[in-house]
Structure formats: structure tokens, C-alpha cells
Amino acid sequence: SKEIGRNSFQLYKPAMNARSLERMAIENKLKQALKNNEFSLYYQPKIDSFTHQIVGAEALLRWHDSELGFISPANFIPLAEELGLIVDIDIWVINAVCKQIQQWQNKGIFDRRISANVSALHFTQGNLAQSVENALNIWQVDGRLLEIEITESSFIRSLEDAKKVLKALKQLGVSLSLDDFGTGYSALSYLARLPIDTLKIDASFVAKVPDEYGNSQIVKAIAAMAHSLELNLVAEGVEQAHQLAFLQELDCHAIQGYFFSKPLSVEQFELFCEAHRPA
Ligand code: C2E
Ligand code: CA
Ligand code: CA
Ligand code: CA
């Protein structure tokens, strides 16, 4: 009836307003975040499952707003993509990673490869290879010390266009890693056609090994495929010893996850490197 309609309207409207106001506030703050220097990078070690030494690291973006506190990239990256901010953010990340590579190399703290995540939109909205080349030049970094993590959605629109970008990155010496592997919907044929170096087994699969049979078989199949295509393999989201043991069995050398370390601030990462230096 009208009565109920009016009541539910009154109950619902303020909540809607609050939510859209909150979203607008986040949008406006995100638009200012780069300029206000509110982004930072955390670094998660990639560990050799057999020797337990650091073989690399992944840079993960953090946004701290003075009023909102820490906002998760899982929330603000999709928003940044919607608002057309992602290419600028990716460029900031690539430069910040290159700067950090240079600093750690000069100080003798870390000289392994560091990966940066880039949005699939960077393949259509910007010039990814040019952004990377510029950053390598500005910070005087050897391309072999940089890795770019992409997802399958980067080449769904045009495999040929993506291939050009990836080839240009390879020419700079940069490594290419396919993130969230196994969660996309594209045909696997692209794996043979694109110059990809590494598969990252998605955390959603890792979470369910070895207990869930079907899931474990998928991880086995991914590992077998990586080995036969001579691709490197990284498992993400490894939290438990029995997951690590299962992955070792499959000859998966590189491990990322809370079992060894959460993503670390620059200072924490330096301490971690100190503690894990080869004897
Ligand atoms: P991703 O690239 O798949 O990154 C892995 C996520 O898993 C990270 O979340 C990491 O902190 C988390 N993680 C690592 N080990 C474990 C574990 O053992 N257990 C659990 N439960 N989680 C673990 P984070 O940092 O919140 O990032 C979320 C996503 O946001 C990333 O997923 C990536 O898609 C995106 N992202 C993060 N940084 C950037 C960036 O600089 N640029 C772009 N374009 N996207 C980014
Ligand atoms: Ca990643
Ligand atoms: Ca993932
Ligand atoms: Ca991802």
C-alpha cells in the first residue's frame, strides 16, 4: 500500500544517500591521492620453496587517506579503473618500483627481480611499453630487474595488440608474469603465442590443496603445463605447511604467501632481506 511505500521510502532513502555520499567522498579523495602523495608500496617476498631464500618480490599498492584510513586495493583499483585514473596510478607504481630497485641495488640490500601489477586497461588506454621504458631510463634500471604482472583480461580484447605490447616489454629485458592464472575464461592457446615467462597459480586454488581432490588435480595440471611449456611457476596465497609440501612435490619453486611473509613496508622488507641473506 501507499503507507508501506512511504515508510520504506523514508527508511531506505537516508541509507542510499549515505552510501552514495560515501562513494562520492572516496571518489573525490582518490582523484587527489596521487597529487597528495598518499600511495605507498609494500613488498611481498617470493621465496624458493626448497632453499627458503628470497628469489624476488611483488610490489603491492597501499592507499592511506587521513580521514578514511587504509583502503584496500581490492576496493580502490576497480574504482580507479572506472574513474579513468588507473593508467596514471600504474605509471606511478612502475616508477616507484624502479626507484626502489635502484636504491636497494645501490645499497646492496636486494638485487633480485621485483614485479609490478598493471591493470588490463593499461593495454588499451595507455602505452604500457613506453611507460615502462621511460621509468627504466629515468631510474637507470636494468629491465631484467623488473617484472610486470598482467592478467588474462589484458588480451581478451585484442591478442595481436597485446602481443605487440608484450614483445616491446620483452625487448626491454622485462619479465612477464600471468597473474591469477586459472581464474579467467580465455582459451589456453594464447600461452603458446605470447612471450610470457611465468604463471602465477591463483590463491583460490592454493587455498584448497591438498584436501580438495578436484582442486588439487587442477593445480597439478597447471604445474605440468608450466613445466612442459618451460614457464616459471609461482604459487600465491601459500599460508600453510601442507600447502607448501604439496607444491614442493609438484616442483613449484617460487612461493608467495603468509606462510613465509605478508607484504612488508620498505623498512620491514630490508630487515627480512637481512635475515634471509645467503650464508
Ligand atoms: P594480486 O595481484 O593477486 O595480489 C595478491 C594479493 O593477495 C595481495 O592483496 C596480497 O596482499 C594478498 N596475499 C598475499 N599472500 C597472501 C596469503 O597468504 N593469504 C591471503 N589471504 N592473501 C595473501 P592486496 O595487496 O590487497 O592486493 C589485491 C589486489 O589488488 C591484487 O591482487 C591486485 O590485483 C591489485 N593490486 C595491488 N597492487 C596493485 C598495483 O600496484 N596496481 C594494480 N593495477 N593493481 C594492484
Ligand atoms: Ca599480482
Ligand atoms: Ca591473485
Ligand atoms: Ca589480481
From TrEMBL:
The chain positions of domain EAL read: 23-277
Membrane-spanning residues: none
What are the boundaries of the signal sequence? none
Highest taxon of source: Bacteria
Instruction: Indicate what this protein is called per its UniProt record.
Output: cyclic-guanylate-specific phosphodiesterase
Q: Which lineage ranks, top first, belong to the organism behind this chain?
A: Bacteria, Pseudomonadati, Pseudomonadota, Gammaproteobacteria, Alteromonadales
